[in-house]
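This is your field. Have a critical look at the following sequence-structure pair:

***
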Amino acid sequence: MNRSILPLLLVAGLAMPALTQTAAAVEGPPMLLHGNYCGPGNNGPAAPVDALDAACARHDACTPDGALAPKACNLRLQVDAARVADDPRQPVDLRMLAGLVASGAAMMPSAPAAKPLAAPASVDVESPPDSDLLPE
C-alpha cells in the first residue's frame, strides 16, 4: 500500500467508528490498528505490546461499555500518544502511528459532560436574637 495513503486511512479508521457507533457496539472481531487495544474493540485481557498500546488500553479501561468515552479519557489518550510520538527512543513507524492516534483522539467525540448539580434554593434561617448569644 502506498505510504502516502496509509496515514489517511489510519486516521479515518480511528475517527469513523467513533463517529458512527461506540467501540463496544462493534460486532465481530475487533478492528485493531495496532497491538491489542488501539482501534475499535480490544483483545483484552491480553497485555499491551508497547507504550502506545498501553495508552490505548488505558483509554479502553476508562470508556464505559456501550458509551462514548468521557472527554478526559480522549484527552489523556491524545497526550499519551503524543508523548510516544515525540519519544526518540521509539521506532520511527511506532512514532508515526502514535502521532496519528493522538490526532484521532483529538477528533473523537466524547460523552456529554454531566450537568452540574443545581445550587440549593436559599433558605431563610431566622437568626436568634443577640441576647441569646451572650453568656448569662
About this structure: The chain has five helices and no strands. Residues 6-114 form a domain with the Phospholipase A2 fold (CATH 1.20.90).
